[in-house]
Design brief:
244 residues; alpha/beta; Rossmann fold; 2 domains; 7-stranded mixed beta sheet; 7 strands; 44% helix; globular
Length: 244
């Protein structure tokens, strides 16, 4: 990949960074995102961190090759512990699981409370992240879907929230499980990729239900009922969406 030319997933994330922001990319791997943000002029400075030395060594080489050694810094460490409060405006956590993303956010509250914007792109368990945001004085500021190499990715933007959580927008009575799974802003705005997104989720739950039916040691009736309830809710979302 040419430096500064980001693939669709990373480009979508970069577009959510307010111009002029100092950014930390947690789990940066080869530092393509921080390099791209600086080369594009969107960020004056960026930090990339990772827990593994091999990708950090590759990231260090990439930073030098891209000519941004004075503006992109790499750090070895876990989560937000590599940062000091107020050091960055935006934190990106992309490519990790939803549970791990929440653990990272929970571990360093002093840093978390100083950040103006979080851009999160969990690979799985996105609904866990949405629920965690609601429960931890953050608000969903934006949601997006992006296709990259045939796969859809969900990108979430969260910002500090003041006051109580607003009442959920649920005109079809889908319930919080389904809304968190699909994405309230994606639903509200009718994202162009929403139908495909919901079809993918529905397929996953229908497959899970079939596996439960065929299992030699069936899960509890409560689990089966929950999966069926979510599948029915996703089917209702599809029914309400335009065909094209």
């Amino acid at each position: 990949m040419a430096f500064g030319v980001l693939p669709p997933r990373l480009n979508c994330i970069a577009d959510k960074v307010p111009p002029g922001s100092v950014v930390a990319d947690i789990g940066t791997d080869h530092a393509y995102l921080p390099i791209g943000l600086v080369l594009s002029g969107r960020s004056p400075r960026a930090i990339g961190s990772d827990t593994k030395r091999a990708p950090l060594a590759a990231a260090a080489a990439n930073i030098v090759d891209a000519g941004v050694a004075g503006q992109v810094e790499i750090r070895e460490g876990t989560g937000l512990s590599v940062l000091t409060p107020g050091e960055v405006d935006v934190v990106v956590i992309a490519g990790l699981g939803g549970v791990l993303t929440c653990r990272i956010l929970e571990a360093d509250p002093a840093v978390r409370f100083s950040v103006e914007r979080f851009i999160l792109q969990p690979m799985i368990g996105v609904e866990v992240v949405r629920r965690w945001i609601d429960d931890n004085q953050l608000k969903l500021a934006d949601e997006d879907l992006v296709e990259d190499e045939g796969r859809l990715y969900e990108v979430i933007v969260a910002e500090p929230r003041t006051g109580s959580l607003p009442a959920p927008d649920d005109p079809h009575g889908l319930g919080p499980e389904v809304i968190d799974l699909v994405g309230p802003l994606l639903l509200k705005r009718g994202h162009p990729l929403l139908r495909r997104h919901v079809e993918t989720k529905l397929g996953q739950f229908r497959k899970a239900l079939e596996e439960l039916r065929q299992a030699k040691a069936p899960r509890s009736a409560e689990v089966r009922a929950r999966y069926q309830r979510i599948a029915d809710g996703l089917a209702e979302v599809l029914r309400c969406l335009p065909k094209s």
